[in-house]
Design brief:
The structure is a homodimer. By secondary structure, the first copy, chain A, is α+β, with helices and mostly antiparallel strands. The first copy, chain A, has one domain: Orthogonal Bundle (Arc Repressor Mutant, subunit A). In chain A, 61% of the residues lie in helices and 13% in strands. Chain A contains six helices and three strands; from the N terminus they run ααβααββαα. In chain A, strands 1-3-2 form a three-stranded antiparallel beta sheet. In chain A, a hairpin with a 2-residue loop joins strand 2 and strand 3. In chain A, helix 1 packs antiparallel against helix 4. The longest helix of chain A is centred in the last third of the chain and has 15 residues. The first copy, chain A, is elongated, with a radius of gyration of 20 Å. In chain A, 25% of the residues are buried. The interface between A and B is large, with 40 and 40 residues. Chain A binds a DNA duplex through helix 4.
Chain lengths: 104, 104
Amino acid sequence: MDDVFKALADESRRSLLDRLHARNGQTLNDLCDGLDMSRQAVTKHLAILETANLIATLKHGREKLHYLNPVPIHEIGERWIKKFDRAKLVALGELKRQLEKRDE
Amino acid sequence: MDDVFKALADESRRSLLDRLHARNGQTLNDLCDGLDMSRQAVTKHLAILETANLIATLKHGREKLHYLNPVPIHEIGERWIKKFDRAKLVALGELKRQLEKRDE
DNA sequence: TTGACATGCAACCATTTGGTTGCCTATTAT
DNA sequence: ATAATAGGCAACCAAATGGTTGCATGTCAA
């Protein structure tokens, strides 16, 4: 799971996932289009996403097709984010009131 | 939002959030307890979490109390993870079938 | 008021990260 | 057959990251 969080920490990688979400099965060159970085940089990002199991690839001739795997993202939602959903932000005023009590 | 993703990318920081989730309003020293790193390292992690608005702090005498703010985590769930929830992992067999079609 | 305690600040360090360039290999099209 | 196309590999680099240590400051208690 750490792999997934680390992979998601980079904006370029999140935008690659967005692109695949918009259109699945793109080649490396497709994914490079319009991006302000070298093909090799993109390759590295894709490798990190693949290691985190966020994308799966399939060779087809000289092309490599990239497919989004939404499962790990879903699991982060289920196993991590949901835990915090019940917690509510205690207003600062409320906090202060509690603190006053502590002193009595 | 990038701040939040980056803050969550580190296991130590996620576990600090977990600790606050278990018991809110802990001091720096509380949070250091049992952790295998210096107080200053923890301070830095907490600063990053605070910048990402994941925790709020309140000075109380010589102590600094740390409170979890679950809102940004919730927002990542709503604004980012939900988007991918509808996407389904296309089985590899399915993918291959699609590829065969491409060639015709 | 003086010592202990809770925290802050700054300099420093090794490793990781995100990027580059140059060249190599494999597949396709002419 | 040959050139163009798609991608892979490796070396290198600067900056960010996660950690350390040493010292300073502010607050509480004896």
